[in-house]
TrEMBL record:
Belongs to the NAD(P)-dependent epimerase/dehydratase family. Its cofactor is NAD(+). Its EC number is 5.1.3.2. Pathway: Carbohydrate metabolism; galactose metabolism. It comes from the Bacteria. Keywords: Carbohydrate metabolism, Isomerase, NAD. GO terms for biological process: galactose metabolic process. GO terms for cellular component: cytosol. GO terms for molecular function: UDP-glucose 4-epimerase activity. This is UDP-glucose 4-epimerase. It is an enzyme of class 5 (isomerase).
Length: 341
């Protein structure tokens, strides 16, 4: 009998790709999403890729009564919790939205896990929990610094909530995956990153500029202490990131967890600057990207990339796709969206 996994925020960018990987690994999946920052088309894309009529429930994870009905309707013992507001810049402008949505959704899920006897949760965390680290690359033992944004602070607080909950309720197991910067799209180009309005992340802005939807890409700052002055990040292919979630679920369902609460860095182990990423896109696609330098953006950190050796060793997982391959997949997704040949 197949295990079933509840995926909150499963119509979102990472959630939809993870659903595909879960199904490919033999799991059944139920998607819950309120579609506040996603579209049902992603669910349709997942169904086309997998050939599975994945159940979908349009529910807000902060609504405990509605979520309780989901727990009663479907039988599952594992949850991957993606549902959250996720833009650094927006969180600076709308901190209360981020604190209410991100904290309350996790608390609701954990309360229901306790009450309904659900055992495993993978939490969608972020490298923003490290703030601006003093030493690079960051390992899992790197001290967390003060968050640079309300978004980052919600991830720190949510990790603490998860850690304290599994300590108080030993029947619950939790793994926090600290993502670096996911980019790219599924090779089929049937699902990918689909921002509503002006993109908050770099790659959709690159692809929209390349497609002519936007006149110019703004590079936030060229005066950072980096080789070319632009901010440095660890960019990981979204399908590689999705596979890490499958491995994390496997770890818990297979009884391989080392303690009730674990956390892992999920990145490539390589830092690329914003200007380097633009150059990589142009090289992979042959399309020039009009860009200009503007002032720094509030909430951004200067540079961060992962030491992934612990995750590689413990999970038996590592990032595989090249940056060029990933950026080409993002461009193919953008072209499909815009009807570009």
């Amino acid at each position: 009998m197949k295990e079933t996994v509840l995926v909150t925020g499963g119509a979102g960018y990472i959630g939809s790709h993870t659903t595909v990987e879960l199904i490919g690994a033999g799991y059944d999946v139920v998607i819950v999403d309120n579609l506040s920052n996603s579209e049902f088309g992603a669910v349709e894309g997942v169904r086309k890729i997998t050939g599975v009529e994945v159940p979908f429930e349009q529910v807000d994870c902060t609504d405990k009564e509605a979520m309780a009905r989901i727990f009663d309707k479907y039988k599952f013992n594992s949850i991957i919790h993606f549902a959250a507001s996720k833009a650094v810049g927006e969180s600076v402008d709308k901190p209360l939205l981020y604190y209410r949505n991100n904290l309350q959704s996790l608390i609701t899920i954990l309360e229901l896990m306790r009450d309904k006897g659900v055992r495993n949760i993978v939490f969608s965390s972020s490298c923003t929990v490290y703030g601006q680290p003093e030493v690079l690359p960051v390992t899992e033992q790197t001290p967390r610094q003060s968050a640079q944004s309300p978004y980052g602070n919600t991830k720190q607080i949510c990790e603490d909530i998860l850690r304290d909950t599994v300590h108080a309720y030993p029947a619950i197991y939790g793994i926090a995956l600290r993502y670096f910067n996911p980019i790219g799209a599924h090779p089929s180009a049937l699902i990918g990153e689909l921002p509503k309005g002006v993109p908050m992340n770099l790659v959709p802005f690159i692809t929209q500029t390349a497609a002519g939807l936007r006149e110019c890409l703004s590079v936030f700052g060229d005066d950072y202490d980096t080789p070319d002055g632009s901010a440095v990040r660890d960019y990981i292919d979204v399908t590689d990131l999705a596979r890490a979630h499958v491995v994390a679920v496997d770890r818990m369902t297979g009884g391989k967890s080392k303690g009730n609460y674990e956390f892992f860095n999920v990145g490539t182990g390589k830092g690329l600057s914003v200007l380097e990423l633009i150059a990589e896109f142009e090289k992979a696609t042959g399309v020039k990207v009009n860009h200009k330098i503007v002032g720094r953006r509030a909430g951004d950190i200067e540079k961060i990339w992962a030491d992934t050796s612990f995750a590689n060793r413990e999970l038996g997982w590592k990032a595989q796709r090249s940056t060029g391959e990933t950026l080409l997949s993002a461009w193919n997704w953008e072209k499909r969206l815009r009807g570009i040949k």
